[in-house]
């Protein structure tokens, strides 16, 4: 989406925040099984114009069944973190051999799905600031 020529003038940070807000709205509407009038009222409170609200509601209605199936496949309870392991990684050079000197943390969360009893690992890399937000 960042490569879309229509969106090239928009700050990538703002674009990511807008995407996150729209995804949250869609997921909450699906989770609450909200009808079009409730969604419209919420979007009107956010000061969206009528045309955008109608477009959003039309797209939501078209994809509502697929969204409910996706939400149903996730399960009823969130994953439970059973263990955490981490290590500090210090990157000296990147792929283009430019010096970067950036520390980052490699974090692995051991999680358990209480619905199915299955165990799995979730791994990710983050900066010091991101790790502080996570903690």
TrEMBL record:
- Ranges for domain COMM come to 80-135
Identify the CDD domains for this entry: Commd3
Looking up InterPro entries in the UniProt record yields: COMM, COMMD3
Instruction: Please give the biological process terms from Gene Ontology that the record holds.
Output: sodium ion transport
Q: Name one Pfam family in it.
A: COMM_HN
- Coiled-coil ranges from the UniProt annotation: none
Task: Give the family per the record.
Answer: Belongs to the COMM domain-containing protein 3 family.
What is the official name of this protein in its record? COMM domain-containing protein 3
Query: Which organism does this record belong to?
Result: Sylvia borin
């Amino acid at each position: 989406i960042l490569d879309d020529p229509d969106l090239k003038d928009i700050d990538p940070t703002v674009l990511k925040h807008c995407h996150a807000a729209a995804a949250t709205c869609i997921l909450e509407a699906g989770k609450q099984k909200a009808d079009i009038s409730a969604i419209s009222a919420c979007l009107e409170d956010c000061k969206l114009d009528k045309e955008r609200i109608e477009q959003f509601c039309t797209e939501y209605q078209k994809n509502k069944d697929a969204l409910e199936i996706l939400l149903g496949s996730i399960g009823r309870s969130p994953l439970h973190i059973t263990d955490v392991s981490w290590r500090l990684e210090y990157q000296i050079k990147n792929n283009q051999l430019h010096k970067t000197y950036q520390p980052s943390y490699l974090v692995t969360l051991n999680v358990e799905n209480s619905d199915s009893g299955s165990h799995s690992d979730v791994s990710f890399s983050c900066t010091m600031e991101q790790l502080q937000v996570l903690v």
